[in-house]
């Protein structure tokens, strides 16, 4: 479990949240709360989140009772109070498309009678299904990653569709008018609450995650052709960066600001044999930020991100030389 170098504030819970303005490590905070209260705070739902914020009164960061055990990841439903019950017949592990990587979020695919779940990368962008307290389901035909979809559903409805009675129920079947893939509220992690309870509620600060991801990108301030930039990134890192969602676009924008060329190469090129734009990871383009009328298709074209302005994407000839951004992971 994580030990804070400088300590942090922490919060205890016995029907009420108590903000303790002392600097301690997580383990020290846990011991304190168990001795003087019940345990470190746990959060059941968005109402608890509001109460927790009010107890802190903007006094700073605070430990709560959620910690990563480092053990096996367990599947959970996003909607609080819905228990995940293993049902192997609901899964189709062979049902991923060629664009989907295995991962820790669950989506449902409707295609030629296939209505089963598959675990895919949470960064994948697709449609999603929201749930309302009045037991109404809503298919949102907007491409988002799993966390974005969860935030959208919680803000505009109640949560992502959760539980097999929602995911496999009659109302879900009524949504099916065509072939599609959609997120549902299924995820897995190895996080546990301090008191051993198995509540599935999570409300991550995605800005903090984005800050951590910044270390996954590196700007190479050398002007190279697209092919040489591609080879450099593959030989020294993971490869040229692929931008598959708005979060990665935001990271690329921040990284590109420091470039000393007008554009920076990214891992997107036009494949003549297929007649479409593809990422070096072979993903098709689901999310994009092309500049208006600046998308030119040609056998010798790849994409560069504008260093300034709106950091949009521009078609550039492969033999032009620019800085480039590599993915470290």
Quick overview:
By secondary structure, the protein is an alpha+beta fold. The protein has helices spanning 26-36, 46-56, 146-156, 164-167, 170-175, 206-213, 226-236, 246-256, and strands spanning 8-14, 16-24, 39-40, 62-63, 66-68, 74-77, 105-110, 117-120, 126-131, 137-144, 159-160, 180-189, 191-193, 217-224, 239-240, 263-271, 276-279, 301-306, 313-317, 322-327.
Descriptive key words:
329 residues; alpha+beta; Mannose-Binding Protein A, Chain A; 7-stranded mixed β-sheet; 8 helices; globular; disordered N terminus; C-type_lectin-like; C-type lectin domain-containing protein; C-type_lectin-like/link_sf; CTDL_fold
Please describe the topology of this protein.
Elements: E1 8-14, E2 16-24, H1 26-36, E3 39-40, H2 46-56, E4 62-63, E5 66-68, E6 74-77, E7 105-110, E8 117-120, E9 126-131, E10 137-144, H3 146-156, E11 159-160, H4 164-167, H5 170-175, E12 180-189, E13 191-193, H6 206-213, E14 217-224, H7 226-236, E15 239-240, H8 246-256, E16 263-271, E17 276-279, E18 301-306, E19 313-317, E20 322-327
Parallel strand pairs: 1-4, 9-12, 16-20
Antiparallel strand pairs: 1-2, 1-3, 5-13, 6-12, 7-8, 7-12, 9-10, 9-11, 14-20, 15-20, 16-17, 16-18, 18-19
What would your notes on this structure say?
The chain is an alpha+beta fold and 329 residues long. It folds into 3 domains: 1-67, no CATH class; 74-191, no CATH class; 212-327, Roll (Mannose-Binding Protein A, Chain A), CATH 3.10.100.10. It is 22% helix and 32% strand. It contains 8 helices and 20 strands. The chain has helices spanning 26-36, 46-56, 146-156, 164-167, 170-175, 206-213, 226-236, 246-256; strands at 8-14, 16-24, 39-40, 62-63, 66-68, 74-77, 105-110, 117-120, 126-131, 137-144, 159-160, 180-189, 191-193, 217-224, 239-240, 263-271, 276-279, 301-306, 313-317, 322-327. The strands form 4 sheets. Strands 6, 7, 8, 9, 10, 11 and 12 form a 7-stranded mixed β-sheet that branches. Strand 16 and strand 17 (276-279) form a beta hairpin. The chain is globular. Mean pLDDT is 80; it is low at 1-7 and 207-212. InterPro entries: C-type_lectin-like (IPR001304), C-type_lectin-like/link_sf (IPR016186), CTDL_fold (IPR016187). Residues 17-131, 130-204, 221-327 form the C-type lectin domain.
